[in-house]
Design brief:
Layout (H helix, E strand, L loop, with lengths): L1 H14 L6 H7 L1 H17 L3 H15 L2 E2 L4 E2 L4 E2 L6 E2 L4 E2 L4 E2 L4 E3 L12 E2 L4 E2 L4 E3 L3 E2 L4 E2 L4 E2 L8 E3 L4 E3 L1 H13 L13 H33 L19 H6 L3
Parallel strand pairs: 1-4, 2-5, 3-6, 4-7, 5-8, 6-9, 7-10, 8-11, 9-12, 10-13, 12-14
Antiparallel strand pairs: 14-15
Helix pairs in contact: 3-4
Length: 257
């Protein structure tokens, strides 16, 4: 029990730059208090003392503003930052190393008792402030849920879900977009990440610029072919980008189609 508590305190110190000491974390972090109380409530729930489990859960809700059903399964080194308004449903499962911010709901869409109604979060998942993850599906390891996103379908491992309803952005697509942005001296993630409308607009502009670069490469290739077909005159600059690669699927994934 105490080893688990020390692990919880250390994970908060590692992830929150505002945390100054173990004593401060132990006494002033409601996310930690909610997790400790949940472990007692969950123990009673597993031993079929349902009312007592629910009562402890209710006390935790009053004191911390975080509502965790005693039937929920929560792994190790989970950090609930700030935590006010967090709701975690009965059949929710949270993997090791996850981070959950304020206003998050891990909710259900089914009314059938005994069914898997709430989501399963893999390891090291980040769920940003105000996000709603609704349904009995799985969010893969190392995935990210953007602020205020409404997720109603599975999220692949390492992907990012943003928007209402959430659109899935694959990790490799995000990396390619950032690489293209770096070439132009600007990053759409310079201010916000994934969920800001202006950032979304900039991503579209970056993709459009990448498309133009591809078209220019095709033109240089055509000129190169004409050059070889005629007198072999060298009219293609050495720095001509004749091998650019462009994937049209990036924009369709961004809009969720």
């Amino acid at each position: 029990m105490f080893a688990r508590l020390r692990s919880d305190i250390q994970c908060i110190l590692d992830r929150d730059p505002a945390a100054r000491s173990k004593w401060e974390v132990l006494t002033c972090y409601p996310g930690l208090h909610a997790l400790v109380l949940h472990r007692f409530a969950h123990w009673f729930w597993l031993h079929k003392l349902y009312w007592l489990g629910r009562f402890i859960s209710q006390l935790s809700r009053w004191f911390t503003g975080i509502e965790i059903h005693p039937g929920a399964t929560i792994g190790e080194r989970v950090f609930i930052d700030h935590g006010m308004g967090v709701v975690i449903g009965e059949t929710a499962e949270i993997g090791d190393g996850c981070t959950i911010y304020q206003g998050v709901t891990l909710g259900g869409t089914s009314l059938y008792k005994g069914a898997k109604r709430h989501p399963t979060l893999g390891k090291n998942v980040v769920v940003s402030a105000g996000a709603k993850v609704l349904g009995g599906f799985t969010v893969g390891d190392n995935a990210k849920i953007g602020s205020n996103a409404v997720v109603i379908k599975p999220v692949p491992e390492g992907a990012t879900a943003v928007g209402i309803p959430a659109r899935i952005i694959q990790a490799d697509d995000s990396a390619r977009r950032e690489e293209a942005a770096a070439k132009m001296g600007f990053s759409a993630y310079g201010i916000t990440q994934n969920d800001d409308p202006l950032a979304q607009a900039m991503k579209g502009l970056i993709d459009n610029a990448a498309s133009h670069e591809h078209q220019v490469a095709l033109l240089w290739q055509a000129i190169e072919k004409l050059q070889s077909a005629r007198k072999g005159e060298d009219c293609v600059p050495d720095d001509a980008q004749v091998k650019e690669h462009f994937e049209a699927e990036k924009l369709t994934q961004l809009v969720g189609k």
